[in-house]
Amino acid sequence: MLSRQLEVSLRLAVSMARQKRHEFLTVEHLLLALLDNDSAVNALKACGADIVSLRKELEEYVEQHTPKLGENNDQAPHPTESFDRILQRAIFHVQSSGGDRTVEGADVLVAMYSERDSFAVYLLKRHQINRLTLTQYLSHGTRKEDIQAEEEVEDIEGDAASSSNAGPLEQFTLNLNNEALKGKTDPLIGREKEIERTAQILCRRRKNNPLLVGDPGVGKTSIAEGLAWLIVNGKAPKPLANAEVYSLDIGALVAGTKYRGDFEKRLKQLLNALKKNPNAILFIDEIHMIIGAGSSMGSTMDASNLIKPALANGTLRCIGSTTFQEYRQVFEKDHALSRRFQKVDVNEPSISETIDILRGLKTKFEDFHHVEYEDKALVAAVELSSKFINDRFLPDKAIDVIDEAGAQRRLKAESDDSLITIENIEDIVSKIA
């Protein structure tokens, strides 16, 4: 995922911070280490950077403004949230572009521009190194003087989205109603309050966009899939009886957009298709990922900025989902985007609620694995996973336990006994915990 040279640069950043006894590993440490990274240096030089001057100013700033550890404190420098976010964005952008390309130093440089309040970005801009020039260099190997000589960007012929017979909804989304009709989604069990609140927000005139926020594994995606299941089974509230839920495939939307304007064109085609269908509801899982998605095409325009107008005036109904951590660290910081959504907390279900969920899903797993589950085994799966599997949340971890118990029994082809008992559950929990 990360290139070897970038891994060396990251180790160098840590080593510099540790050597100077700095308490934190900052964006400035990262940029300083990238000044010895071939990929980053080539990109900076193509943009007309003075590497020596950059290094000098960075070293002075880091020395003067980074808190230091006490004499008897030998703990490792702690990466700041900005440091972590930059690496996450760089990895996501490279993965979204498709192919097997590794993350290079130049990719990290581009991702750095999302941290607008950092001194590192301020310094780059002061040296006339902007994000557009860097992304042009990464995309086409175009140097600064070549970019300045261009009067306009060439029109793109043969765009993948327009050349295909499939419409944007078919290319970039998954129709959850159709998935529910095919039996590929599980029925929604419980979560009446969350569904009621979600439906209530969707029926507003403006800012009709619920944001499902909860820990990983508590069932945020299941609420969107469950809403589609309720619709196709005639159990949805009357105003949503004819609604269609589309799940956005952000990877398909970004993949292959090599030139400036490709991403914006695809997203606008998708938004126009959704606006033409008054019953459409767009579901964006891990919605914090749209902040910065597509921005490598040039300028600071990304997916979140493109959908904001439609979210505000009610022409686009959108359900988003994210974790509490990402909501605080990424989503909430984009005030213009976050105020267009209405937060719906999705808390971890209780043990009794999770038992009801497993009882409701029981037949799905029995049909798939060709086994039978004792009711006591379902109760044990919930209680034992809640007690011993501490790094995950209900109902996800309990579902994982009964699923793996079914898989284990299925693999033992020589056994005629297809009943899953408490002993089977205990065995699986001991392996997972």
UniProtKB/TrEMBL annotation:
GO terms for biological process: cellular response to heat; proteolysis. Residues 1-145 form the Clp R domain. GO terms for molecular function: ATP binding; ATP hydrolysis activity; peptidase activity. Pfam families: AAA (PF00004), AAA_lid_9 (PF17871), Clp_N (PF02861). Keywords: ATP-binding, Chaperone, Hydrolase, Nucleotide-binding, Protease, Repeat. GO terms for cellular component: cytoplasm. It comes from the Bacteria. Signal peptide: none annotated. This is ATP-dependent Clp protease ATP-binding subunit ClpA.
